[in-house]
Amino acid sequence: MNAHQSLAIGQPIERFEAISRAAVESEAMVRFAGISKTYPAYRGKPGVNALENIDFAIPRGSITGVIGRSGAGKSSLVRLINGLEKPTTGHVIVDGRDISALAGRELRLAQRSIGMIFQHFNLLSSRTAADNIALPLEIAGWAKADIKTRVAELLALVGIADKHDRYPSELSGGQKQRVGIARALATRPSVLLSDEATSALDPQTTRAILDLLANINRELGVTIVLITHEMSVVRQLAKEVVVLDAGRVVESGHVADIFTHPKHPITQSFLAEVIGDSLPVSLASRIVAEPSAGGQAVIRLQVRGAGAGDTLVVRLARELGLDVSLLSARIDEIGGQHVGSLVLGIPLGSSGRDDAATRTLAFLSQHQFPAEHLGYVA
Ligand SMILES: Nc1ncnc2c1ncn2[C@@H]1O[C@H](COP(=O)(O)OP(=O)(O)OP(=O)(O)O)[C@@H](O)[C@H]1O
Ligand SMILES: [Mg+2]
What we know:
With 378 residues, the chain is an alpha/beta fold. The protein has 2 domains: 28-113 and 189-273, Rossmann fold; 281-377, 2-Layer Sandwich (Alpha-Beta Plaits). Helices cover 38% and strands 28% of the residues. It is built from 14 helices and 14 strands. Helix 5 runs parallel beside helix 7 (173-185). The N and C termini lie far apart (65 Å). GO terms for molecular function: ATP binding; ATP hydrolysis activity. This is Cell division ATP-binding protein FtsE. It comes from Bradyrhizobium nanningense. Keywords: Amino-acid transport, ATP-binding, Cell membrane, Membrane, Nucleotide-binding, Translocase, Transport. Residues 30-271 form the ABC transporter domain.
């Protein structure tokens, strides 16, 4: 806004308009400014502060993940974007317009440029796939012939041209979500909101739907806001991520940065789910607190960063002269970065003494790999 104000001084009007349009063009697709949302108390139930101090932007053309536990405020946040809820304080700017200030016909018109898909698809069971997709076009007053052409185009876009006349009860979950996506895109929105759209689907179907969303983002330039409680969904699709906890943004940024350097405990716990910081059961059950002769110290180290860990174990073995064994390893590549954990077995020697573990931890700390001593195996 400051840029606009400074431009306004001494600028001819036409020029100001052209520049300010360009500025809006390059701006965020969605901006939350000073948002809080309180659901009021009623019938003896206390009020709920669902969102507090929300200030962030969703870049135009991005796929931005919003992740949080149940009750974190994710759905409240998306309902603010499409104006289904009004903020208690602050403004939600969508595509340069304050959607929180709109009502009636103006709001309905603005909502046509914001599509939404849902966990349970929300299709009308009495309408065929084609007629479900046609619904928003009928509401928008399109001519019959135009609707027909557009629906055929959309069915092809989402890969179910052959399901034109099928009713929802005759479709699989993945196919129903494809109908949901086609319906959401019917009026050519600039933003697509997805509230747990893959949560009811199996992993393979989830992947196919996420691939479809990636294509839509790439081909049509639609900004996608992806609400989820699963880090694996964020990892597969998003470039930006916002971590929500108890109604507040606790961390946000590029997915690759957040995955390699998670700061908040909530983010770390989400991450542990995808990168498998948990030990294989067969190993965990063998770990004890006391060392024994001929046994191994168990050390887990975290691997985060480009090329990290590739040669680490070899160097460790060579430099410390230890016969290191790899008890478990899980490394993923996320946004070009390696993220995961290695569990090493460090031989204690016949005395069962522990200085090999101490030396290993010192070596890892010196090379800036976070590591922890989990105990011993016989
Ligand atoms: N219409 C409402 N009236 C009163 N409280 C509400 C309403 N909608 C949501 N809440 C409360 O606001 C908080 C945030 O809810 P919200 O549905 O936004 O969370 P969520 O992150 O989407 O959770 P989930 O993952 O379970 O869908 C919760 O405490 C919830 O009980
Ligand atoms: Mg929700």
